[in-house]
Amino acid sequence: MRIAVHGAGGFTGRLTVAEVRRRGFTPVLVGRNEERLRRSAAAAGAWDAEVRVAGLAEGEALAAAFADCAAVINCAGPFTVLGQPVVRAALAARTHYLDTAGEEGFIREVLDGFHEEAVRAGVAVVPAMTDDGAPGDLIARLVAERVSAAAGLVPEVAEILVADLRGRGVASRGTARSMVAVSERAASERVVPERVVPEREVLGKDVPGPEMSRRGVVDGGGPSVVDTEEGPVDVEAFALPGAVTVPRHVRVRRVRTVIRAEVAALFAALTPDVVDSVPEIPDEAARAASRWLMLAEATGTGGGRARGWVTGSDAYGMTAVIAVEGARRLAEDGAPAGTLAPAQAFDPAGFLDQLTTHGVTWQVTPA
């Protein structure tokens, strides 16, 4: 099975090519710079992989590069600037499309703007298949199902909180560029920092993971959130993928997405000069030692609550795993045609269970 990786010359693209090869599939590297693509193939251990050169302005050539592939994974950001031509080319080729976008604005454009075209093409278009987008969306669906008062296929809840509680850690230059766009959008909206002061409940020793709040309180009102082993966490509103994806499959009155205040401040301080100083490829040892943590809490229409978390190491490596597993499932298992949030395209519990083979842990509990 051929899987095209667009933007394969970049850092995330190289990791994705390596994961395609590791899974026993055939990677096809697509981008505008042949030399860079071949270096990436060699670095990924796929020195004999096929390279196809096509720029974003060459719509027909880009579609032809995808035409005999089971799926295309788009890794070339910032997606707000570079993403739409790749979606159009995948649709023209009638090839399933996934991407590693974390940019809320672009994800919204894809989900809202390409649905009818994807239905006509008979393919699935699934953005946000990244370490925050997919796990956050999948765990949010599961906590919504736990407290839903509605019968049928669409859970109904009063509120969902999605929190990315990773600390300051490694970041690639591509991530920094993408987060400049996201933080600028967030800065233009009214956001209020919140102090989370929960009571704490330690998970059982048989389930490794963070500590979780029992009945947390947010100063000034609002829903509880999950604590970490470090204790209370300062958070700020931030436009995570879940703000767009969750309402696609949960009937919800309000979705809130937050990140650590220290990380929000870091993103807000990014300037073009700072971005250019960020290494293109993060230190491998630092990546391996880093942890990511996505948490979700749902408040039911009847007042019940559930919360859940997904956590693992090496966010960049996990993004490649998530994207390739999604491509495999679209190609082998199928999905409804159209634009889909991760939880619409894939069984949430089944997908998260698959990630446990890569050191990920997850859990959903009543609050």
Report what the structure shows:
This protein has 2 domains: 2-129 and 319-345, Rossmann fold; 133-315 and 347-366. 54% of the residues are buried. The longest helix is centred in the C-terminal third of the chain and has 19 residues, at 315-333. It is 40% helix and 23% strand. It has helices at residues 11-22, 34-43, 59-66, 79-82, 84-92, 104-113, 115-121, 133-147, 173-187, 242-245, 261-268, 272-277, 284-289, 315-333, 342-345, 348-355, and strands at residues 2-6, 26-31, 50-53, 71-74, 96-99, 124-126, 156-164, 194-197, 200-201, 212-213, 217-218, 234-237, 251-260, 291-300, 305-313, 338-339, 361-366. By secondary structure, the chain is an alpha/beta fold. It is built from 16 helices and 17 strands. The strands form 3 sheets. An 8-stranded mixed β-sheet has the order 11-8-12-13-7-14-15-17.
